[in-house]
Amino acid sequence: MSLYRETGRRSRAAAIGVVAVLAIGLAAGYVTGRATAPSPSLAEQVRDVQDRSRTVIRGFELVRTHYPRDRAAGRAQARRAEESFADVRGDLVVLDPIRASEAADAVEEAVRATERNASPKVVDDAAGRAIDVVLAAALLGD
Q1: List of residues 6+ apart from 79 with CB closer than 8 A
Q2: In Å, what is the CA distance from 2 to each residue of 9, 13, 57?
Q3: Alpha-carbon dihedral angle through residues 131, 132, 137, 141, given to the nearest 10 degrees
Q4: Where in the chain are the domains?
Q5: Could you tell me which of 100, 56, 53, 104 has the C-alpha nearest to residue 78?
Q6: pLDDT tens sequence across 31-48
Q7: Which architecture characterizes domain 42-137 according to CATH?
């Protein structure tokens, strides 16, 4: 019978066990935290739609600036604004379906005006209307 025992092996095994339990606890806490994280609030979702709508508005403001001097640049801006509107249209429908439909019509008309080579005044008016209606559809009071 030996009176000498190695205590290092037991304490090392205990330390490894404690570290493993802590690692598992941290992983479980992270997974639980992510699973129960709140989804964006309604206000945050509306702000996101409004921010994306501002991209459309800025696009038509650029149409008004560029079209009188460079019709090709104005047409290109109108197409980009139309693409931005297509990305946000579904969300605008949720906010206000009637205004979203009016905005779609106004955006389409502004783009058509640039494509048919309308006068700068006609394009300016159409782009201005698109801006106004998108602002209303996005519930922006800018």
Answers
A1: 111
A2: 16, 22, 87
A3: 110
A4: 1-37, 42-137
A5: 56
A6: 776 666 567 787 888 899
A7: Up-down Bundle (1.20)
Instruction: Report pTM.
Output: 0.71
pLDDT tens digit string along 40-95? Answer: 787 888 899 999 999 999 999 999 999 999 999 999 999 999 999 999 999 999 99
Res 17: pLDDT: 76
Q: What is the dihedral of CA 51, 131, 91, 81, to 10 degrees?
A: -80
Contact 126, 110 (CB under 8 A): yes
Residue 80 buriedness (CB in 10 A; 0-12 / 13-18 / 19+): middle
Q: Which of 116, 141, 140, 129 is nearest to 53 (CA)?
A: 140
Tokens 């598992």 sit on residue: 24
What pLDDT shows up at residue 30? 74
> What Å distances lie between residue 41 and 8, 38, 46, 53, CA to CA?
54, 8, 9, 19
List the structure tokens of 32.
């639980």
128 pLDDT higher than 80: yes
